[in-house]
Amino acid sequence: MQSVSEILKKIRRLELRTRQFVDTAFAGQYHSVFKGRGMNFDEFRQYDFGDEIRTIDWNVTARMGEPFVRKYVEERELTVILLVDVSASGGYGSVLASKREIAAEVASLLAFSAIRNNDKVGLLLFSDRIELYIAPAKGRSHILRLIRDILYHEVQGKKTDLNAPLNFLQNVIGRRAVVFLLSDFHSGDYEQAITVCAHKHDLIAIPIEDKGEQNLPDIGIVRVQDPESGAVYELDFSDRQIRSEFAKMAEAERKEREALFRRKGIDSVPLRTDQDYFPILRGFFLRRERRLRSR
Fold first, then answer.
1. What angle do CA 120, 126, 129 make, to 5 degrees?
2. 183 vs 33, 103, 124, 205, 211, CA distance in Å?
3. Whole-structure pTM over 0.90, yes or no?
């Protein structure tokens, strides 16, 4: 078990690393990529050539005897919700970092980007149940608490159920929010729940995978344990057919998931534990920014 000082050091290192990314590359992109909740009325002003006819307020125009239009400003403050999978499978990592550690780094980057833009950030940790919910708020100390809980929350459940957090979110967040869903998506059917969530919120799916879950190494007979069910299996990894079938199943699951996201119009940013997540995430921001500009 890590000491309090070791935990604080790890959180501080994570803060420094992610805030450096925010300062050097995400400063303007986050602001331009995510729109506010809508437009707020600002003031009335006299009609000027080129103004939209639809913005004319006919009641004020009638009183003043000349055309007046309504002026609106974009409401910039957002609510950002981080949905983070902390089930047992998140502890797996065949390289340097586990899926849960990658999720913590990515969540940290997104959270510091949000508070840099004066947005509120909330956290929902889940397994096969709701593990922890922290209401949206602002400030550095709040973000550091979120990071600590992602890394060190004592998880009660082992399996993954995406329906639980998606349905819970519908009850606690009344207005439209930007929702980042970080998970390995090893869950039962969640199509209905994710459809409802994506209709109400700006939902971005961030699947986090490990190469060991995609392809088995040729290393002979191995005893493996499913971290979520606890079941133990003895498999011959040197058997080419077993490795081939395993890879096919993993690829089929990935394709089915991506097809669901496309059907529902959900942006997806797949990440892997053996790859640098920063250029992949930054590439998503850039693509989304260009897409918004072309509308």
1. 130
2. 22, 8, 12, 8, 15
3. no
10 Å CB burial of residue 97 (0-12, 13-18, 19+) is middle
pLDDT single digits (tens) 66-103:
888 877 555 557 899 999 999 988 776 566 778 888 99
Could you tell me the CATH superfamily of domain 4-32+77-293? von Willebrand factor, type A domain (3.40.50.410)
Judge whether residue 27 has pLDDT over 80.
Answer: no
Q: pLDDT tens digits for 128-151? A: 999 999 999 998 899 989 988 988
H-helix or E-strand containing 106?
Answer: helix 99-116
Report domain extents, the chain. 4-32+77-293, 38-75
Give CA–CA dist 277/265, Å, rounded.
22
DSSP E strands, the chain = 38-46, 68-75, 79-85, 120-126, 130-137, 178-183, 202-209, 221-225, 232-236, 267-268, 271-272
Report which DSSP code applies to 269.
-
How deeply is 109 buried, as exposed, middle or buried, from its count of CB atoms within 10 A (0-12, 13-18, 19+)?
Answer: buried
Burial label for 79, CB within 10 Å (0-12, 13-18, 19+), is buried
131-138 long-range contacts, Cβ below 8 Å, gap at least 24?
A: 131/86, 131/155, 131/156, 131/157, 133/168, 133/172, 135/172, 136/79, 136/80, 136/81, 136/177
> Does the pLDDT at position 229 exceed 80?
no
Tokens of 57: 């307020």
Residue 32 CA to residue 53 CA, distance in Å, equals 27
Question: In terms of C-beta density within 10 A (0-12 exposed, 13-18 middle, 19 or more buried), how is residue 46 classed?
Answer: exposed
Q: Which token pair is 3?
A: 């000491």
Give the tokens for residue 254. 């990935």
| Count of C-beta atoms within a 10 Å radius of residue 114 | 24
